[in-house]
Amino acid sequence: MDPKLGRMVTSLLAYLLLLEGGMFSPSPPPSGLLERVFQFIDLHQNEFVQILKEWVAVESDSVQPVPHLRQELVRMMALAADKLRCLGASVDSVDTGFQQLPDGQTLPIPPIILAELGNDPKKPTVCFYGHLDVQPARQEDGWLTDPYTLTEVDGKLYGRGATDNKGPVLAWINAVSAFRALEEDLPVNIKFIIEGMEEAGSVALEELVRKEKDRFFSSVDYIVISDNLWINQGKPALTYGTRGNSYFRVEVKCRDQDFHSGTFGGILHEPMADLVALLGSLVDSSGHILIPGIYDQVAPLTEEERKMYKAIDLDLEEYRHSSHVKKFLFDTKEEILMHLWRYPSLSIHGIEGAFDEPGAKTVIPGRVIGKFSIRLVPHMNTSVVEKQVKQHLEHIFSKRNSSNQMTVSMTLGLQPWMANIKDNQYLAAKRAIKTVFGTEPDMTRDGSTIPIARIFQDIIQKSVMMLPLGAVDDGEHSQNEKINRWNYIEGSKLFAAFFLEMAKLRLQ
Ligand SMILES: *[C@@H]1O[C@H](CO)[C@@H](O)[C@H](O)[C@H]1NC(C)=O
Ligand SMILES: *[C@@H]1O[C@H](CO)[C@@H](O)[C@H](O)[C@H]1NC(C)=O
Ligand SMILES: [Zn+2]
Questions:
Q1: What pLDDT score does 402 carry?
Q2: Residues 358, 289 within the same domain
């Protein structure tokens, strides 16, 4: 059979099966309202790009602790607050005080915006989290254009913050503004929490969320974050989990001062030899963690989950190539993704006190500190992991009969986050993605740690979803960060379609 014809027959069959099965009803055609909203967004896309340009022009860098940058951040938050007020939202710019820096300097923390639009008890309330601060950027770092002048080249909008996270915040606002401009009722009640310190560790955010739990957040049903990326260039994703992290420091000390290997070499338990043995006992050459019990709490893989990995679009060769890696530990897409997302990993980061310069210095370091961390997955628990790591290192160390002193501490313990993807908002987002992009999303997790999702889940105890808009090559935090015009505009439509789907689910 002609392959094209074959495909047609297959898709026709699939379509009939869908109709027959009834389990997956095909998404309904866009309603008249949705069509008008989409049309509005298309017609006004240059205005939406223009606002993004104005926002990118503000150097809202929260990383460099410089007073004039803090002023820019405050100005950025004021711009956003104004924009939300123009939409008719009630806006509270919450002053959260000052940031104390290690050098004694204090700097103001930009206000956190809490805004709301609509409080109809018959509608679900969706709260959008975003941030308007950015990573530092200078043209000399290798930008082809001025990082703070949004510049369009071949449909790509280059500028610091374009994708992380000003573009997605504006896409949500654009979606709301389309309903407002068409004088249509918003399908859901909308809330915003927008901060300006995300890139600096979300200083003051958790405390504010706790404080507002029974007030601002009491009516919130769902939380949406759009601060990560798709895992490829053209296919949208929906993200339901992130790994946690527990960071360890293991110190081996003989004395504070270093030794000469000519004078002491041969008669000492050398701290570095102890440390290398300790670090060498953590993980084997296939990436398997050797700490007893560490895999006990890892959630078992279900058949349903296995299928989700199979459906994901990832060009492994391209990924390997662009990462300049000859060979990964695993050969299949499924294994690679599972080991990034749903299994723990242990990485050794460095040794403090080691001789790390060029040349041949014959030193015996007197005191060294090894650093490693474990990315955690459901249902691992930081306090259990801490105990297991300490026990393991003590056991290995005791076998060496060393007279040195070993101290182990966990300096960071962040729990993993995972959402229930059967939740209404995941269902609504999937339908909205189908409507706008004509495809099922890649169901992704993130191998890194994004504490904010878990914080919202723990404190507010409501469903959290990550709905990214940017493509995999957007270069967040990097030189030549961009968002594609297509992603930005279709992303605005996606949020609008999502509001309508949420409202429909409420009625069912
Ligand atoms: C982690 O384990 C400890 C000790 O077993 C327990 O007290 C704690 O509640 C657990 N934490 C979580 C988040 O499950
Ligand atoms: C440590 O000491 C024990 C008992 O003194 C001895 O049996 C063992 O071989 C020693 N181990 C090492 C690595 O030196
Ligand atoms: Zn971000």
A1: 98
A2: yes
